[in-house]
Specification:
Layout (H helix, E strand, L loop, with lengths): L8 H21 L3 E5 L8 E4 L6 E4 L9 H12 L5 E6 L5 H4 L2 H7 L1 E7 L7 H15 L4 E4 L7 E5 L2 E6 L16 E6 L2 E5 L5 H9 L3 H5 L5 E3 L11 H7 L3 E4 L9 H4 L4 H12 L11 E6 L4 E6 L4 E3 H4 L2 E5 L4 E4 L3
Parallel strand pairs: 3-4, 4-5, 5-6, 10-11, 11-12, 12-15
Antiparallel strand pairs: 1-2, 1-16, 2-3, 7-8, 8-9, 9-10, 13-14, 16-17
Helix pairs in contact: 4-5
Length: about 325
């Protein structure tokens, strides 16, 4: 026979207090929507996780060419979502290799509920393999498919109180550039929103703001913006930045002089300056980092180290970036 544990009245009071507080603490910790921007170098990959922790939306999947992009993507995604787990939605903004580099692996290694793309084809082996697997899984009733080109302005439910809307400017106005054909995604949770625009450039931004419906134009106004086209000078016109009016802007790009960014040279000086001008006059939930960011000046044909404003986050500087919200406030966290 084992002895019974004996507690003093003071100990019983402390344990009672813990038991009363514990459910409240769990609720407080579990009421945040989490968005993780993975550090995949010159590419994009972001995971949206519902407050319940059991529903997930993946947007893009890193590059197939940039050094360690796929290694980092697979490590970070599987750390949050174990292999063979359910992944409610996987979105490919457009069929460039720096956005769909890991999507074949995702479709093979996860139980993806619905696959969404921009409805465009590409003459690449990477896209062809993904498309073949996607069609086979749909045929076998293993996967649902949504064509973003024919489903623009469709709103889907991720979980309780969390929805996301597809926005495809090129579905309304013919845009020939592959980047401008990107599928945009806006995620909403209570009073806060996150906007993903793929590689949309100035023409798609202009169409969105000037030629889409008032309802579609209103969707551009968001709290957190995943900056278009890795901070290129061909995206992020001041008109678009003002329309979005972000509290936080996230740039996913490669390092100076590394891999594919030897060619692309992202981010660009003019773009960093545009966001610096914006955040000078607009308070951000993100603290001032106090460091510099390397940006390429196309006109001078050289890299410059620029001061980084509060509100501008970059994977090349910050590594993996996590932004959470309880629906009222934004929090930049160190969450895994």
């Amino acid at each position: 026979m084992t002895d019974r544990c004996k507690f003093s009245s003071a100990q019983r009071s402390r344990w009672l207090l813990v038991l009363l507080i514990w459910p409240v603490a769990l609720t407080a910790a579990g009421n945040r929507l989490r968005v993780q921007y993975f550090n995949v170098g010159q590419g994009d990959a972001a995971l949206v996780t519902c407050p319940d922790g059991t529903h997930h939306l993946l947007i893009d999947s890193g590059d197939s060419k940039y050094p360690n992009s796929q290694k980092n993507f697979k490590r970070e995604l599987s750390a949050v979502l174990p292999l063979k787990s359910k992944l409610d939605f996987a979105v490919a903004s457009h069929p460039h290799s720096d956005h769909i580099g890991g999507m074949l692996w995702v479709l093979n290694e996860y139980q993806v509920g619905t696959y969404i793309d921009n409805g465009r084809t590409a003459e690449t082996a990477t896209w062809s393999r993904i498309n073949e697997l996607r069609k086979r899984q749909v045929k076998n009733n293993q996967l649902a498919y949504i064509n973003g080109k024919t489903s623009s302005m469709t709103t889907l439910k991720l979980c309780d109180k969390v929805t996301f809307t597809l926005i495809t400017p090129s579905a309304t106005v013919k845009l020939s550039d592959r980047n401008d054909q990107s599928l945009g995604v806006r995620v909403d949770y209570k009073q806060k929103s996150f906007l993903f625009v793929g590689d949309m450039e100035d023409k798609a931004e202009e169409v969105w703001l000037d030629q889409l419906t008032p309802e579609a134009r209103a969707l551009a106004d968001a709290d957190v913006l995943k900056v278009g086209h890795h901070g290129s000078n061909t995206s992020s016109t001041m008109h678009f930045i003002q329309a979005v009016s972000p509290d936080i802007a996230v740039v996913s790009c490669g390092a100076r002089g590394v891999g594919t960014n030897i060619r692309y040279k992202h981010p660009r000086t003019v773009t960093v300056n545009s966001y610096t001008d914006w955040f000078k006059n607009h308070h951000s939930a993100a603290a001032a980092p106090g460091d510099q960011v390397w940006a390429y000046n196309k006109k001078a044909e050289k890299w410059n180290a620029l001061p980084r404003p509060a509100g501008l986050l970059l994977t090349v500087n910050d590594g993996n970036i996590t932004v959470e919200t309880d629906g009222r406030e934004l929090f930049v966290t160190d969450a895994p």
